[in-house]
Amino acid sequence: MPESLPTAAILGWYAGHRRTLPWREAGVGSWAVLVSEVMLQQTPVARVLPVYDSWMRRWPTPPALAADQPGDAVRMWGRLGYPRRALRLHAAATVIDELHDGSVPTTYEALRGLPGVGEYTAAAVTAFAYRRRAVVLDTNVRRVLSRALEGRQFPSRQVTVAERDLAESVLPPDDETAATWSVAVMELGALVCTAATPRCEACPVAAGCAWRAAGRPPYDGPARRARPYVGTDRQCRGRILGLLRDSDEPVPAADIVTAWDDEEQRIRALDSLLADGLAVALRDGRLGLP
DNA sequence: CAGCCGTGGCG
DNA sequence: TCGCCAAGGCT
Q: pTM of the predicted model, to two decimals?
């Protein structure tokens, strides 16, 4: 098993193939990086771009967002999906405003303490905003390392200690190089070493790739269960929230019937939205955004 | 810790 | 067509 990836080849490829993205522009602040990272969680770049632009124009700093209502964030979030992320970003802005003097904290631990910031996002902000060495293990990096180093088409479902150790061991020692290496490997996974149809002929590390050398054997692990969506509570929640989001003012509770037929499911979904704080019930019986 | 949490584009 | 999936996090 190769013990490392050719850093020069990866950095060289990245320099020539990297996409121009607003949150990667020179001089963007840590808030911009944080916002982009949260929006990009499980969400394609193309869908994030327009929302990111609107968001940063309206809330260029954490205190600016904290000063507005969480519902404003939910509305601006639009159809990005997983709207609790909008709520968490607003909550994070509030914590930043109140506990960190309005600036995104610089330590991994403090970042990790922000709502919606998990292991990946804390590492990403540490590396991409503050240019410090951090193990950035997202789905792209995991897939690239799995293939190039372990000869497996896909990584395991959950990150293991061994996997994190491996990622740490191949991360360049220098802060700045490590940060660029991480975004480069992510970009490689996003553009070349893709999940469905990898373009090995265009890969800068194909020559040393264990998976390719083994003849690109198919994934042999436990089957990953496909999640249904149509007819689920998730879809129902989305419909109801869409109703609230697209209305300029709170809507009569009775109106949500138009969003979903099945009553039992409709009630359950609404209750969960209320529990999540994504919707609020007014005294007059209407429903609105928080 | 396995399950839950949206959405839309693509092969 | 429809299953798969896209820079995860939380409980």
A: 0.97
Distance in angstroms: CA A105, C1' B4:
29
Nucleotide nearest to A92 (CA to C1'): C9
Architecture of domain A233-288: Orthogonal Bundle (1.10)
Listed in order, the ranges of chain A carrying CATH 1.10.10 are 233-288
pLDDT bracket for residue A2 (50, 70, 90): low
At residue A251, what are phi and psi to the nearest 5 degrees? Answer: -110, 150
Pick the CATH number of A135-213 from 3.30.160.340, 1.10.8.60, 1.10.1670.10, 3.40.50.300: 1.10.1670.10
Footprint of strand C on the protein (CB under 7 A): A 21, 23-24, 36-37, 40-45, 82, 88, 115-122, 124, 138-140, 186-187, 189-190, 194-196, 224, 226-227, 229
**pLDDT at res. A1:** 53
Residue with CA nearest to C8's C1' atom: A41
Give the pLDDT confidence of A17-26 residue by residue, as tens digits.
Answer: 999 999 999 9
Task: Provide, in whole angstroms, the distance separating residue A52's CA from nucleotide C9's C1'.
Answer: 20
Percentage of residues in chain A having pLDDT higher than 90:
95
The H-assigned helical ranges of A100-174 are 108-112, 119-128, 139-150, 161-170
Q: What is the pLDDT of residues A219-249, one digit of tens each?
A: 988 887 788 899 999 999 999 999 999 999 9
